[in-house]
Specification:
Elements (H helix, E strand, L loop, with lengths): L6 E2 L6 E2 L4 E6 L10 H6 L5 E8 L10 E8 L3 E2 L2 E2 L14 E7 L2 E7 L4 E6 L4 E4 L3 E7 L5 E8 L16 E6 L2 E6 L3
Antiparallel strand pairs: 1-2, 3-4, 4-5, 5-13, 6-7, 8-11, 8-13, 9-10, 9-12, 14-15
The protein binds 5-phosphoarabinonic acid (PA5) and manganese (II) ion.
Amino acid sequence: MNPVFGFANWADGALQVPGLKVSETKLSQLTGIFRDQQAWKRLDPETLVYRVWWWEPVPPGTEGGLFWGLTEIQPGRVGNEYFMTRGHWHVIRNRAEFYGTVAGAGKLVLMNRGGRTWSEDMSSGSLHYVAGEVAHRTVNTGDVPLRFIACWPSDAGHDYEVAGGRGFGVRIVEEQSAPVLINATD
Ligand code: PA5
Ligand code: MN
């Protein structure tokens, strides 16, 4: 393999790498993700919820390779539920991943194969090891963008089957100006 290298701005996570990829997820694409569907319909469907920039130094599916990405989740809520990523399992279930928070405040919601769900607080500098066999979703509970870096195996893949309905078993909502974890009832 030819040598490849890039740059990350450690202050904000911004990447300068060959062939940088980017995806944007708007509210209109998050059908059935938030609990309050009426509130979701009232919001502008063009509202940007999160962006991901990532670097694929090897083709997706390569065994033994790694990818590097930056996610930025905007602050906001649908009803009282904070903006969040869709959330996923890895297609190859035993693939793990590192997350590291660059800026903002949030929660990483995790669920194992048995359906046990828990969360970890995200703040500047927090490092999170997402073990294999664990579904994961990130939630911006602050009032500025939540930015975190991620490093994951290039053959992990994303399986979004867990994203909708009660998928994660819990939701992160604002109650009395603070984030709380509640059981998902629908
Ligand atoms: O690989 C990861 O876990 C992250 O880069 C996520 O894909 C990113 O945060 C966006 O979340 P999702 O893929 O659940 O939409
Ligand atoms: Mn992942």
